[in-house]
Amino acid sequence: MRDVAVGVGMRAPSLYSYFDSKNAMYDAMFGQAWSDYLATLDAAEAALPRSPRGVLRALSHSFFDYAVADLARHQLMNQRTIPGFAPSAESYAPAVEVLGRSRRLASRAGVTKDSDFDLYVALIGGLVDAQLANDPGGNRWERLLDSAVDMFADHVGIPKPRKAKS
User: Fold this and answer.
1) Dihedrals phi, psi of 35, to nearest 5 degrees
2) Cα 38 to Cα 92: distance, rounded to the nearest angstrom
3) Are the C-beta atoms of residues 57 and 145 closer than 8 Å to each other?
4) Structural domains of the chain, count
5) Whether the Cβ atoms of residue 41 and residue 102 lie closer than 8 Å to each other
6) Among residues 121, 119, 134, 139, which one has the least CA distance to residue 78?
7) For residue 113, what are the domain limits?
8) Within a domain: residue 13?
9) pLDDT of 104-151, one tens digit each?
């Protein structure tokens, strides 16, 4: 009866003909998600503003928008939701590259201490998590990004942009 439902003599394809295991499938998805964000970061980097706070804001919005666009992808990339899954070194490499590049860009904007960069990552990640948990599809927490970046910038001593003289 199953052959009739799918087609005479045909069987539904199995993902396991492409992947050795569920973890291998998760690994490929993890690597693809971070590679896709790396391309997003490339585009964001090409359009970064000159001001240090503008750089941090642009980076924040880039990651926030990518993360909240797909809850399952965000969970795979940033949370330990799959028991027993750890990405391979190959799939983890784009994530390492994203973090390294983000650290360098933040450093050029004035975030030079490792602990300050960790705080920045936690701040943006927390806003992503709050958005996904409390207002999926909305913008309640996204609206706070620029204010949060400004508070962070004040905390680490990044000067406010100069006002244009009239």
Assistant:
1) -65, -40
2) 12
3) yes
4) 1
5) yes
6) 121
7) 18-156
8) no
9) 999 999 999 999 999 999 999 999 999 999 999 999 999 999 999 999
Closest of 79, 57, 59 to residue 144, by C-alpha: 57
Residue type, 104: R
Sign of dihedral through CA atoms 94, 95, 100, 104? positive
5, pLDDT greater than 80: no
Neighbours of 137 (CB within 10 A): 7
Entry pTM: 0.86
Tell me whether residue 11 is in a domain.
no
Q: How far apart are CA 53 and CA 15, in angstroms?
A: 45
Distance CA 152, CA 166 (A): 29
Question: What CATH number has the domain bearing residue 88?
Answer: 1.10.357.10
d(CA 56, CA 14): 44
Residue 112 resides in a domain: yes
